[in-house]
Design goal:
Low-confidence stretches: 1-31
CATH class of the largest domain: Mainly Beta
Distance between the termini: 150 Å
CATH topology of the largest domain: Immunoglobulin-like
CATH architecture of the largest domain: Sandwich
Oligomer: single chain
Number of strands: 15
Mean pLDDT: 82
Helix content: 10-25%
Strand content: over 45%
CATH superfamily of the largest domain: Immunoglobulins
Largest sheet: 5 strands, antiparallel
Length: 289
């Protein structure tokens, strides 16, 4: 009788161990493959190129300037791409004062290019040392930054956009005293009527404004006040505004008498505000002329 060959005893848990080892091996085999495929796919997509073209002042007024910026987006690939979005911001002295976003959808043809444009607002009220710039007619320096996101077969590629430039402030309106009328309003009160002429040298309207002032006669301040509703002035035109001042003959003393007698020098100092622009005033006129 042939002795039977002894069978090896089965190991407990062998199926689970085999499955686990197989899964681990499969994972190790698949993971490098995915990375290689992804890397291969990414290497097949050439990065688009964003080039700054120009920046123009689209509009200018007494509140601020609207800047239009244009970039060219080149697609070096043999297939078309599309613009996902554009995010941008404008800085003054390193401080962000305006943000914006443009929706995507623009198509960039294969081996072609498309313009990417957006407009941003530069508000004068946010400009540091605005009064200093106004007084010396200096330009305003700004910086624009942004991200242009492009949809590709392997995901979104973000391209940085930047530009720095300057924009001129509006030309300041000219103020002058055209007339000074003096009349006796009552036995104790004198009325001085200062006629101002405002000239707007800009190709856009001068909006209504306001100003605070001090009125002096022969070097003595006799009144100070503020006036709202400063006249709007058409482009390249002029407007007149009357500044009525009532003086007490007793309180104003010698200056009031000098005004009443005629020939005294009248001086108007202060600051006008047109839009966001402060305009220093220092005007003189000989009463009675």
């Amino acid at each position: 009788m042939t002795p039977s060959t002894p069978r090896a005893a089965p190991r407990r848990g062998t199926p689970a161990a085999v499955l686990g080892l197989a899964a681990a091996s499969l994972g190790l085999a698949v993971m490098p493959g995915c990375a290689a495929v992804n890397q291969l796919a990414r290497s097949a997509v050439q990065q688009p190129v964003l080039t700054f073209q120009k920046a123009e002042v689209q509009s200018l007024d007494f509140e601020g300037a609207t800047l239009a910026l244009e970039y060219r987006l080149d697609n070096p690939n043999s297939f078309g791409l599309s613009l996902a979005r554009v995010q941008y911001w404008l800085q003054l002295d390193g401080r962000v004062v305006t943000r914006g976003e443009v929706a995507g959808g623009l198509k960039i043809p294969a081996a072609g290019a498309a313009p990417v444009t957006f407009a941003t607002r530069l508000p004068w009220a946010e400009v540091p040392r605005l009064l200093e710039l106004v007084q010396r007619h200096g330009p305003v320096a700004y910086q624009v930054g942004g991200l242009v996101a492009v949809d590709t077969p392997v995901g979104v590629i973000e391209l940085p956009a930047s530009h720095a430039g300057t924009v001129d402030l509006p030309e300041l309106p000219a103020f002058r005293i055209a007339t000074v009328g003096v009349r006796l309003a009552s036995l104790s009160e004198l009325e001085v009527d200062v006629g101002l002429v405002i000239k707007n040298p800009n190709p856009f309207p001068l909006p209504e404004g306001s100003f605070s002032y001090a009125l002096a006669a022969d070097g003595e301040v006799v009144a100070s006040s503020a006036l709202t509703g400063l006249a709007a002035v058409p482009p390249g035109g002029e407007a007149r505004v009357q500044v009525p001042v009532k003086l007490s003959l007793i309180g104003a003393g010698r200056a009031a008498l000098a005004l009443r007698g005629g020939g005294s020098e009248v001086r108007l100092t202060g600051e006008a505000k047109v839009g966001a622009l402060p305009i220093p005033l220092d005007l003189t006129h000989r009463a009675g002329r």
